[in-house]
Amino acid sequence: MVFHKCFSEHFRKDHFLSKIDARIKLLVVIVLVLLVLSYKGMFFPLLVASGALVLCMNMHIPLRVLLLRFAQPLFIALVVLVMKFFFSGDEVLFSGNILGLEIVGYRDGLMEGFRIVSRVMGGVSLVIALGFATPFLEFAGALSWLRVPKQFVEIMMFAYRYLFMFLDDGVTIYSAQKNRLGYSGIRKGLHSFGVLTGTLVLRGIEQSQKTSEAMVQRGYTGELPTLGESPFKTGEIIAAAVCVICGVMIWMI
């Protein structure tokens, strides 16, 4: 599958993070994300984001893939920044009139928007670095160890299994529509997009029924097997504790 290769080929088995227990990495990321979200300024989130991006570069993740991962959360953060700048605050930074509409920008709103953007960057960077440094099955096993509801873990595993297949189907249908001039105009484009969306929804429903029947025939009892829980290594625990303590100390500054 093209998309599955695009997302999985960047995992490096020879990187030092790939050798660390997924449970340890998950716990450290959860603690750091909580620190990032609770920090009042911008220094700590940006520091964490810089560290996570350095790790991704050390794993030789292509810049295009990183930008793809950051695109959606960064777009949402920029929308929040604009809304905070123009619709929230008391200290007027500038004001003007455009086509009879009064535009006012607020200094405190802008700063609050930057703080939100920094938190988004910090949290998303941690999650992205965790994703590149941890195989999906180990990540699912770590979630099970944390007593995350098994229904959530199972749905996530099924979604990961079939998501890339539906993406490939969508690209195939889109290419066929485009070759037949299905997007030559706005009206045709909307119609083609509706057909594409409806086809993928119907295929998803059909595939869910087939998967359910196949699982029952293979003795599915409501629980999917996960990786066995190996004992923690003392060195990894110490390294994780040092990382968390350093993060807390910087957070308190």
Architecture overview:
72% of the residues lie in helices and 5% in strands. It contains nine helices and two strands, in the order ααααββααααα. α6 runs antiparallel to α7 and α7 crosses α8. The chain has a two-stranded antiparallel sheet. The protein has a domain of 130 residues. By secondary structure, it is mostly helical. β1 and β2 form a beta hairpin. It is flat, with a radius of gyration of 23 Å.
- What is the radius of gyration computed over CA atoms, rounded to a whole number of angstroms? 23 Å
- Mean pLDDT across all amino acids: 85
Structural class of the secondary structure composition? mainly alpha
Question: What percentage of amino acids are in beta strands?
Answer: 5-15%
Short structural summary:
The protein is 72% helix and 5% strand.
Observed structural traits:
253 residues; disordered N terminus; 72% helix; single chain; two-stranded antiparallel ribbon; mainly alpha
What topology does this entry show?
Layout: H1 2-8, H2 22-38, H3 43-58, H4 63-87, E1 92-98, E2 101-106, H5 107-133, H6 136-145, H7 150-179, H8 186-217, H9 234-252
Antiparallel strand pairs: 1-2
